[in-house]
Design goal:
Helices cover 16% and strands 36% of the residues. By secondary structure, it is α+β, with helices and mostly antiparallel strands. The strands form two sheets. Strands 4-1-6-5 form a four-stranded mixed sheet, covered by helices on one side. GO terms for molecular function: 8-oxo-7,8-dihydrodeoxyguanosine triphosphate pyrophosphatase activity; 8-oxo-7,8-dihydroguanosine triphosphate pyrophosphatase activity; 8-oxo-dGDP phosphatase activity; 8-oxo-GDP phosphatase activity; metal ion binding.
Amino acid sequence: MSGSIVDVAVGVLVKPNGDVLLGQRPAGKPYEGYWEFPGGKVDPGETVLDALKREFLEELGLVIHSAQEWCGVEHVYPHAHVRLHFYISRDWSGEPQSLEGQAFAWQGAVGVEPLLPATIPLLQWLEQIRHDPQALP
């Protein structure tokens, strides 16, 4: 493994009722079958927000109109050292589609398993903001 850090844009879509969208990693990817918030790698020269919008369009067919930066988490997996840039969006259009063959699910209290290890610590924070838009920066 090289010493480089991979920047990843991650989106937490929050419905008015507080439900959030989780996707399941498709077969053939590291941690296949694990659940995560959707997103993907930031390409060279791309902003994190642009990467987020591109990934949501490519993977789920959703158009993100606006998103707020939430938090950043670094996590070292066996296959990669990632820096996750989490954004929260309550402003998008479209219904999610499985464009890469992945499963996805709207969750209130998150009940799907297994979750990607980097996602687990965020769930407690997420509980605090799901129903309180004022809790965002």
